Amino acid sequence: MSTPKILCTNDDGYLAGGLRVLVEAARMVGEVSIVAPDREQSATSHSLTLHHPLRARHTTDGSIVVDGTPTDCVILAINELLDHRPDFCLSGVNHGPNMGDDVLYSGTVAAAMEATVIGIPALAISYSGDTLDELEAWSDALARLLKGIFEKPFPADTLFNVNLPPIHPSDAKGIKITSLGRRRFSDSLTRAKDPSGREYYWIGGGETTWTGDEASDFRAVEGGYVSVTPLHLDLTNYKLLEEIRGWDLAL
Q1: Range list of H helices, 46-138
Q2: Dihedrals φ, ψ of 2, to 5°?
C-alpha cells in the first residue's frame, strides 16, 4: 500500500509524553497529523461537547489543539480540520493501562472507537506502568507492531486495544491476542468535608482486584507481553437473543 495517512490523538493532552512516543512511532510507518485535546481528558469516555462551541488552534510544531474531548478531536479532525481522510487513527500512548472494564471509561479508547464508527481503522494504545521511565524506549517496537497491523486486512467495526507492559521493550516476551479481563474497585469513593465544612465526594484511588483467565489482557501484561484485544462496536449479546424473545414480554 502507499504511505498511510495517520491521525494521532490522545486523552492526556497535546503536551503528553505518551503522544510524543506515539507520533515518533507513527512517523516511521506513515504520514502523521496530530489533533489532540488542550488538556487532560482522562475518563471522559465517549463524551461530546454540546453546550459550548469548540475552538482549534495550530501550534508551532504543526499540531492542532482542540479545547474538547478526545471524541471531539476525532470528529473535528476527520470532518473539518484535515485536508484528507486518514487511513488510520491512533490514540495514545495513554499514561496508564486501559484494560478490562477501563475501556468503558477511557477517553483513549473512545477516540479510537469514534474513528471506528466513522469507518477508519483505529488503535488505542496504553502503557501499563505507573511511571513513564521506560515508555520512551517503545517507539521502535511500537512502529514494528503498527506496520504489521497496517499490512493486514483490518476487520470491520473493530478497534484494537493495545496495552504495553511496564518494562523495557527488549525485555518483553512478545505479543498476545487477548480478551478483556474484569476489574473490581474497593474503597474508591472518598467522602470528606472542605475547610468550610461542606461535604464532598471524590471518586478514584482505592484498591483494584483483577479477574480473568489466561487469555485476558491483564494476565498478558502481568506476564510481560504486549496485549492486543480486538473490540467490536456491536454490544449485542447474540447468545441471549432467542432466550429473551421467549420471555414474551408485553406492555
Answers
A1: 70-76, 107-118
A2: -70, 170
CB neighbour list of residue 109: distance below 8 Å, 6 or more residues apart: 91, 98, 102, 103, 124, 159, 161, 231
Statement: the pTM of the whole predicted model exceeds 0.85: yes
Low-confidence ranges of the chain (pLDDT < 70): 1, 185-187, 205-206
Residue 216: which residues within 8 A CB-CB, separation 6 or more?
100, 178, 179, 180, 181, 210
Please enumerate in sequence order all residues whose Cβ is within 8 A of that of 89, keeping only pairs 6 or more positions apart, or say none.
6, 7, 8, 9, 74, 111, 112, 115, 120, 121, 122, 123
| Cell numbers describing residue 116 | 471506528
Q: Is the Cβ–Cβ distance between 80 and 58 less than 8 Å?
A: no
What are the structural domains of the chain? Answer: 5-182+212-245 (3.40.1210.10)
Burial (CB < 10 A; 0-12, 13-18, 19+), residue 249, is exposed
In terms of DSSP bridges, do strands 207-211 and 182-186 run parallel, antiparallel, or are they unpaired?
antiparallel
Neighbours of 129 (CB within 10 A): 17
Closest CA to 165 of 108, 91, 93, 221: 221
Give residues with Cβ within 8 angstroms of 249, minimum separation 6.
none
Read off the pLDDT of residues 74-110 as tens digits, 9 standing for 90 and up.
999 999 999 999 999 999 999 999 999 999 999 999 9
